[in-house]
């Protein structure tokens, strides 16, 4: 997940952190399946509520990311939705370590 977060610019990363804290970004319906993580990220903003599909997968020695938002599709940027899912997964990993449990986490 850290390899993904490195590619998120400071502004988008800040908006992702603020959104998660303020609950204007909510990670939902997470599916972890053989080298892939898929989720919905609900975004509540000035234009109302929008839901974006976000996915990470391991490709060879690297990774691939997808988000259905315009920022990713038109600009190719690692958007706040990608950052939100990566931060969410880092939190899940930390929780799993602290409780000594496993949840089939994707290591990036």
Automatic annotation (TrEMBL):
InterPro entries: Znf_SWIM. The keyword Zinc applies. GO terms for molecular function: zinc ion binding. The keyword Zinc-finger applies. It comes from the Bacteria. PROSITE patterns: ZF_SWIM. Residues 52-90 form the SWIM-type domain. Keywords: Metal-binding, Zinc, Zinc-finger. This is SWIM zinc finger domain-containing protein.
């Amino acid at each position: 997940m850290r390899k993904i977060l490195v590619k998120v610019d400071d502004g988008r990363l800040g908006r992702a952190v603020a959104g998660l804290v303020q609950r204007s970004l909510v990670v939902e319906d997470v599916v972890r399946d053989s080298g892939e993580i898929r989720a919905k990220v609900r975004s509540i903003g000035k234009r109302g509520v929008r839901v974006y599909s976000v996915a990470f997968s391991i490709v060879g020695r690297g990774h691939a990311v997808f988000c259905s938002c315009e920022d990713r599709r038109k600009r190719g940027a690692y958007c706040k939705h990608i950052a939100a899912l990566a931060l969410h997964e880092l939190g899940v990993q930390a929780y799993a370590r602290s409780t000594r449990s496993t949840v089939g986490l994707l290591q990036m």
